[in-house]
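Page 37, continued from 36.
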């Protein structure tokens, strides 16, 4: 058994107490949102319309569907990839290899679903099953995290994450002990981060759109916009899949309940909240306002994609002509930091673009309910917290150079505001 490592790493998320509270609060919030979205008043801050009994939550069919979905995505992950990318250097100086075939998995899933629907697969029955499916996904995430915790007990010290090894069972279970849990070349964290949850999210959105068409004759413009915007976001994440290899989730965080639940349950069932809301609360939307909302989403996407691509291009090859002229600061690690272009505007321009898109996803739902704005509010809190964690890690990594970067680029996410 590996000894607890990194016990001096500062505790995050409020330590064991915060981790315990989040483990309870996150699933409760998810079920609250699912129940409220289909209720008449759709009040985010009010009590749920009723408390579901176990017979409404538990369904062996939902569990079977959930496991079949994971099996299908795992099979698509194992198909030959157009490229195999190397991850960042690990503690033991080795690099892991990752298949880049996420977009292929999205296209193949779309083809399979299309074939299924034309053969009579009742996709529009999915919205009625959201509650038991979310319960099955939560149960799967919990059992999966337990297995990951047990697997980490056998892992060598060099395979453990910098956080998540405090010695406190609850905290370590929540954050995850092992950095890159794998069986042979199958990487569980990388697989879960991008495929079952993100593709599941667009599939749920599509099912809601089809059910709306069955109920009202055709999908509403608002439903089309939400589906289109979120499909663009998921397609982008899978097209630029390699970029996920430099995120803190892959490089720094272990794989525990937080990411397992986040990837498998939270993303598909809460990120589809706007489409759920629209099915039960149709909103009138005219073309002029729809065009304006499309413009907001386009501006957000332009900033998000521009910033992410600029950093990824620079990190891959600083002499690439697209970034060679940008101003940089040298650091003691040999890596440089961009101080002009998108990264000279604020220290996290990609978060700014992401937040603008989040707003555009809520606007088609009108302004009379707070519920569809849940994602925007939650995401603001998540990114502010994430930015703080990233800053701490960068300060540690780059020392004085990071202080210089903060002096040159004083705002974190929103120019002149934050
Ligand atoms: N929808 C969702 O739920 C979520 C979406 N996201 C999105 O995912 C994307 C990835 O986000 P995330 O992983 O948090 O972090 P980032 O892509 O912002 O990466 C942060 C890292 O970038 C590098 N960096 C920071 N400043 C500079 C600079 N000036 N020049 C060069 N490199 C710099 C540092 O790493 P190093 O120097 O080591 O390269 C730093 O650790 C974002 O677009 C975010 O909006 C993220 C979380 C949740
Ligand atoms: C619910 C918990 C408090 C936190 C769960 C967090 C996860 C839902 C997110 C952590 C980082 C994520 C990233 C993405 C989706 C959400 C999670 C998994 C992206 C894949 C979204 C698309 C972007 O283009 C890349 C993102 C990387 C990080």
């Amino acid at each position: 058994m590996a000894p607890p490592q990194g016990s001096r790493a500062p505790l995050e998320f409020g330590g064991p107490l915060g981790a315990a509270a989040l483990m309870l609060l996150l699933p409760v919030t998810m079920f609250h949102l699912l129940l409220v979205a289909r209720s008449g008043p759709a009040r985010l801050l009010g009590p749920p319309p009723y408390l579901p009994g176990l017979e409404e939550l538990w369904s062996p069919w939902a569990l079977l569907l959930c496991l079949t979905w994971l099996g299908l995505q795992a099979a698509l992950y194992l198909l030959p990839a157009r490229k195999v990318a190397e991850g960042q250097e690990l503690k033991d100086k080795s690099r892991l290899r990752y298949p880049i075939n996420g977009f292929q998995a999205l296209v193949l899933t779309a083809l399979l679903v299309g074939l299924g629907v034309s053969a009579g697969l009742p996709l529009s029955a999915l919205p009625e099953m959201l509650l038991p499916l979310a319960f099955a996904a939560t149960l799967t995430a919990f059992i999966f995290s337990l297995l990951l915790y047990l697997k980490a007990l056998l892992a060598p010290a060099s395979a453990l994450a910098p956080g998540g090894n405090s010695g406190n069972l609850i905290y370590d279970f929540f954050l995850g002990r092992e950095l890159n849990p794998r069986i042979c070349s199958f990487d569980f964290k990388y697989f879960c981060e991008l495929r079952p949850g993100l593709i599941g999210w667009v599939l749920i959105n599509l099912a809601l759109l089809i059910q709306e068409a069955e109920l009202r004759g055709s999908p509403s413009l608002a439903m089309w916009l939400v589906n289109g915007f979120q499909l663009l976001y998921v397609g982008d994440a899978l097209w630029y899949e390699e970029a996920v290899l430099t995120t803190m989730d892959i490089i720094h965080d272990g794989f525990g309940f937080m990411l397992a639940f986040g990837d498998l349950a939270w993303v598909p069932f809460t990120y589809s909240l706007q489409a759920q809301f629209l099915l039960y609360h149709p909103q009138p939307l005219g073309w002029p306002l729809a065009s304006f909302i499309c413009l907001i989403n386009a501006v957000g996407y332009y900033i998000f994609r521009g910033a992410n691509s600029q950093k990824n291009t620079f990190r891959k090859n600083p002499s690439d002509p697209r970034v060679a002229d940008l101003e940089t600061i040298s650091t003691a690690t040999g890596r440089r930091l961009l101080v002009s272009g998108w990264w000279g505007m604020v220290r996290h321009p990609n978060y700014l673009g992401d937040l603008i898109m989040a707003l555009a996803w809520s606007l088609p739902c009108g302004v009379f309910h707070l519920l569809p704005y849940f994602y925007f509010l939650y995401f603001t809190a998540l990114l502010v917290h994430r930015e703080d964690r990233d800053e701490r890690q960068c300060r540690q990594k780059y020392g004085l150079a990071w202080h210089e970067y903060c002096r040159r680029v004083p705002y974190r996410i929103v120019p002149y505001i934050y």
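Residues 246-248, 304, 308, 311, 315, 335, 337-338, 343, 348, 350-351, 354, 386, 390, 393-394 surround NDP (ligand 1) (CB under 6 Å). Flag for discussion at group meeting. The CA atoms of residues 331 and 400 lie 8 Å apart.
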